[in-house]
Amino acid sequence: MEPLWWQRGIVYQVYPRSFQDSDGDGIGDLPGILARLDYLRELGVDALWLSPIHPSPMKDFGYDVADYTAVDPVFGTLEDFDRLVAAAHARGIKVILDYVPNHTSDQHPWFQESRASRHNPKRDWYIWRDAPNNWLSNFGGSAWQLDPATGQYYYHAFLPEQPDLNWRNPAVVEAMMGVLRFWLERGVDGFRVDVLWHLIKDKDFQDNPPNADWREGMDPYNALVPLNTTDRPEVHDIVRAMRRLLDEFEERVLIGEIYLPLERLVQYYGADLEGAHLPFNFQLLSAPWDARHLAGLIAEYERLLPEGAWPNWVLGNHDRPRIASRVGAAQARAAAMLLLTLRGTPTLYYGDELGMANVPIAREAVQDPFEKRVPGIGLGRDPIRTPMQWSAEPNAGFTQGRPWLPLAGDYARVNVDAQRADARSMLSLYRKLIALRRAEPQLQLGSLEIIETRGDVLAYRRGEGFLVALNLGREPHRLPLSLSCAVALSTHLEREGERVEKRVELRPNEGLLVRLDDGGD
Ligand code: GLC
Ligand code: MG
Fold it and tell me: Nearest-CA neighbor of 459 among 446, 473, 470?
């Protein structure tokens, strides 16, 4: 079967508040993104995923939706959205929306009705109980909030301002499917579904068991094992219903945000692959940066993938530390090569293609509700949501106003303009890697076989034609080789075309993509 665009393609995540401001309010917006589409085309990505753009009190910066079928004025209008989609499509770029089905804003009219009285027809659209159990909020504290007006508690997996919808109620299912249809008919190419594994909770509200591995100082949410609040078997019925709806349209993609161990994660492809097309594989966000470990998880993922399921890999997102800070600037280059040469759809996070690092945020400047509620243990997400660095102009060309989060201190050097002009920059590396992946069907579709993990070296073949060798350490390494080949790309960007015979010499932190002789298509 012909591979689909999301199998061949590369997904690029934009956090709309931080990509490009067009009106000087210090917050990125849709016209801003539109103005930067040519950059994305130049970079070579195939799809743009936008974090939520809907009307929202912004308690969780858009992940608290007050109206699913409109655009928040801070980002623009529905017309701006239509223009963005048309302009993206004109450039061959797909548009993927964030869909937040687990919870609404407490300002959503549905919740306003639901909380109005115990007998309101929408009472059962949310999860109300007379007394709390031990369930915890992901953002600290109990997940139950007393609503004094009616004397009951409602469940919120995240902020109290984000009440969970009751997906056991068919009316909720219908209304939320209507939301998907609204955007599908408007021409969006797919959805990234927020916290998909959370949608269904235990119907008997049993307590969650304690986590024996939890210690004081760790994320308090992890004090319990979320057995009864997440990854419930019935969630798969909902995923299937979403997928059926998407299948009424052509080539739309269903991506799920799911943080689970691999053997649980792959269940979300669904029986007979009738679930999500791409349950996000987040392994690289937290894996120890160690060749043996990475090889192990690549092999485990390949082994666990159901027959016919399409793999995917994610290197960064708006919730987790940036890769350049996690593994260091030098290794971030190897990470780029890893992401873009693994088998499966890569997702990259805006700014990682420049090597943007976490930006320290002063305590009084904190915006993220997670950091405010669970302070001081490094969970805050502001550092990874700072404005995109376009140029050396004031505020890196992001805004004419006062940016909603501070710019990185190094933006005069680390920015698109500077890196465009530098043939060895991170941006140049990303562009070359992406161009190679686009040009070489074997890098998009070819098999993957791990051939070596020795010390710091991770090496694997892609199809018949390519070999990737990554030095994840600071010492030079030599990899013996029975085949002869030529360097297609070095992460140092200076060995292209060099012949390689009998062995590959890897410099510190170097990744090499080599083309094997007679291995072409
Ligand atoms: C997801 C989002 C995160 C948000 C949370 C609650 O994990 O990625 O940013 O805070 O859901 O909606
Ligand atoms: Mg703006």
Answer: 470
